[in-house]
Amino acid sequence: MYRKALSAMTVLFAVSLLATSGCSKSYMDLDYQSQDLSYRVTQEVAKEVIFEQPSIDKSKTDTVKTVVEMEYTQSPLGFSDETAATLLDITVTDLKYFSQGKNGVNTDFDYSRGQDKNKPLAAIVGQSYKIEVAPDGSVSVVDATDARKACTARELKALLSDDSIIARHKSYYYKGATQLKKGAAWSTVVASPKGSLDQKNFEKVYTVNEIVKNGDKKIAHVNMSANVTNKEPENGEDTDGAAQGMGFMAGIFDNTNIYTGNLVFDTTEGVPVLYDETLVAEYVAAEEPRTGDKTKGPDVLTMRFTNIYKLEMVK
Question: Where does the record locate the signal sequence feature (predicted)?
Fold first, then answer.
């Protein structure tokens, strides 16, 4: 059972109590209960296969990529006394969708282009669904029935699946209320993103770079870096099917992983202003060429997986 979200007057009263209590510390305490907010989420997944044969002056690159940019407004509908979760209504206000396969562009949709407003993917704009955001930042889907009925295109069905909604809205950086000061750090352990070339777990370490005053607000700037770990993912994260592809073949490649990100968090309002993270995993194998001019160097096979997530507040 949900009770109504806090009124603006109640929120201001609570803030005034904190202001007069002598507490000057900044906290990352996620608060989606107090106001309507608009965000833009960009998600990109790309796989590249590059085969270079310098001995015979040949090179081939295959790229498969999907980029989805969605803007939405979220409105608080209530607060659960049982789970301490916030119920949010999400309304889609804009969509860009681009996909590319080995043979070229499959889909190039941009709702802001006039000629695209009558295409099937335009059906999602104006649709709403409801989610629940738990105190730890995790997300569950409450109701997306009407939106799913209205959106029949294959791409939109995928965007409105439970997994896609959760991936779009969950707070990747959040680990409960955390005191923020320069140098403070916390970590989370996650599995490889869906579609990865092989299964790994990463420990993300978030470090506060600085706290900046912006008028009457305090804004935390946080850096993230991640490394491969033997630790298990937290919160019972399901890793089955997270990675696809190489299996034992991964052992023949030299592998590098660069996983970084940034967070800008408004500690006064309790909301993210910006969060982005990028994982680039590269696998390289080389062998002597069987034909051609061997002095030009080995044949090199490079496979690259890129996963990008970016959340930014829309003013």
Answer: 1-19
